[in-house]
Amino acid sequence: MSLRPALPRSNALRDANTVCLRCWKKFIRAPPTTRHPFSSISSHKQGAIAVGKSRTSFRKDYFWANSVLKETFGQSRRELQSSIAAIRAEAGQQAKGDNATAKAAEEEMLPHRRRKRVKELSAEDAHSAYPIPLDASSKLANISSTLPQRSLKRILTTYLSLSKPRLSFLVVLTATAAYSLYPVPQLLAPAATATPSLSTLTLFFLTSGTALCSASANAFNMLMEPKFDAQMSRTRNRPLVRKLISPRGAIIFAVACGLAGTGALYYGVNPTTAFLGAANIVLYAGVYTPMKRMSVLNTWVGAIVGGIPPLMGWTAAASQYAHDGTWEELLFGEGSTGGWLCAGLLFAWQFPHFNSLSWAIRDEYKNAGYRMLCWVNPAQNGRVALRYAILMFPVCIGLSYCDVTDWSFVVTSSAINGWMALKAWQFYKAEGHKGTARGLFWASVWHLPIVMVLAMAQKKGLGERLYRSIFGYADIDEGDLYYEVGDFGEEEEHRVAVEVAAEGMEKP
Ligand SMILES: CC(C)=CCC/C(C)=C/CC/C(C)=C/COP(=O)(O)OP(=O)(O)O
């Protein structure tokens, strides 16, 4: 089924000035009743061989000099434009007329009915004015459908749209942010003033592996719900809904991305991170996606899915400084709290973000059969958004407490968390009405990147190192650099003596 049927001929004239040249040409190729082949018309040939004209102007002249076009529409360009203007004016008149009729009908209404109608209309206004951005997948699918069939560009654009590129990009960013926040032991810094470093190669495998795993998870998600995606304005242009790609092609893409992503994480990062990537695909496609139609708890499962990529970033960094690199050490060992806090940040953030976004399209979620708090229990929807917006405070304070960020982060993060909490409070109080859903949605959109940038800029010790690299070190007394033998404890002295003796005995 095509969601964009060709324009009926009667409509062509009306849309004439919004249609591109290529579409005009396609239109013209459709057999009119009396049609001459282009090449046999002498005036066209003249237009075609006009010397010194650029390709574009040639095309224009060729196009407008075409008498077949005149035949098709029976009008010259100027006539055509004036017809369009006339149609527009007519449409305007009609709209005015409609308004007048509606007004007259309204005037006839009883006062209480009129007040009720005004209320309904303003509610509808607020509802429809909420700008839910079309998701990147749908946008790309739209672009893809305009490209020539079987062209490489079309194929690549379609596959890219299957990966939900905007979401996947965000997922990769969260993993990278956690990776960069990992506190590398100062002792391992190449120089006292240098920033302790993490492997760039590991970062490369982490980002590419996470992106591929996310693409796989998203493709599986879309494979499971084209029937329902088709019922929502935000998602009805997705590639599988529009049949821009076959389910078989999408399965191959999802499996290939999943294997490549997990492989990249396994060989280029570590098995624990690879396991988290693979498990997250299963959790998103196998648990969250079917659960969307069963229980409102799906949002909590989805929030776990969103929280795992930062944990992957953390384990990727931790494995470079681990003793034995086991999953127990990476996930639950000393210093792993920072990773869980990063995951917690993403987990909590999704509630104010998603609850406000879904509120605006709650009717669509309801009609498509998705069990979301926004329509099942709007009061709880607001409460949950507020609760998790408030949870941001302790999570951010925890990052400073665990020596991931400087204490100054408590101040800056509290300012931005306070702003989102205020929006969440308004959203909760008005249950999403009076533009509060829009307010919270945009606050959440800004909140996450700002908090991540602040945390990275205020990473523990970064300010101090920057200060030292500018102003240098205070003079150090050389004597402080050496230990006296007596500085060691008795036990340590004994251990060193035994080791030296053993070394002496080993030598021939
Ligand atoms: C490493 C790895 C595998 C990462 C995966 C990360 C990922 C896909 C996170 C998505 C989180 C989420 C709940 C999205 C909403 O899905 P939805 O189905 O409600 O969205 P839709 O309505 O746009 O389809």
TrEMBL record:
Region (Disordered) residue spans: 91-118
InterPro entries given in the database record: Protohaem_IX_farnesylTrfase, UbiA_prenyltransferase, UbiA_prenylTrfase_CS, UbiA_sf
Primary location group: mitochondrion
Gene3D superfamilies: UbiA prenyltransferase
Pfam families: UbiA
One GO MF term: protoheme IX farnesyltransferase activity
Membrane topology: Multi-pass membrane protein
GO BP annotations listed: heme A biosynthetic process
Subcellular location field: Mitochondrion membrane
Key words of the record: Heme biosynthesis, Membrane, Mitochondrion, Transferase, Transit peptide, Transmembrane, Transmembrane helix
Membrane-spanning residues: 167-184, 204-224, 245-267, 273-290, 297-317, 337-361, 382-401, 440-457
Keyword Mitochondrion assigned: yes
Alphabetical list of CDD domains matching this protein: PT_UbiA_Cox10
GO CC, alphabetical: mitochondrial membrane
Function (record text): Converts protoheme IX and farnesyl diphosphate to heme O.
Family statement: Belongs to the UbiA prenyltransferase family.
Name of this chain's protein: Protoheme IX farnesyltransferase, mitochondrial
Organism of this sequence: Setomelanomma holmii
